[in-house]
Structures are given as C-alpha cells and as structure tokens.
C-alpha cells in the first residue's frame, strides 16, 4: 500500500486544509475525533477547481502519544 501511495500520489497531489474548519471532540478513555474540510489539488493541473470535502480522523491517546487509528475522507 505504501509503495502504491508513493508511486501514485506523493509529489502529484497537494492537500490543503480549509482554514477555520477543524472541530475536535474528546472520546472518554480513548482519545479524540477530528472533523474538518480539506481540498486536494492535482499538481499537474494547476487551474483545476477543487471542492472542499469533509474528513474525519479518529485519534487514540496511548502512553501520552497521539496515534491516528482511522481516517475517513468523504470525496
């Protein structure tokens, strides 16, 4: 999976966070959920229009380290 991502996405796509869109909610005895909007741009098509899409990230706080356990990007 990692080699596929490096081959097909790295250096070809730019992700931009929509300013002011982040919401973070604690999950008792687990971590937190982060919700926001981002845009993706194809670096080879600089004039293409990108619509904001919602993403959700579930974070786990384990031994004082924040780990991503699930990423959902609704695009």
UniProtKB/TrEMBL annotation:
InterPro entries: DUF4440, NTF2-like_dom_sf. It comes from the Bacteria. This is DUF4440 domain-containing protein. Residues 3-68 form the DUF4440 domain.
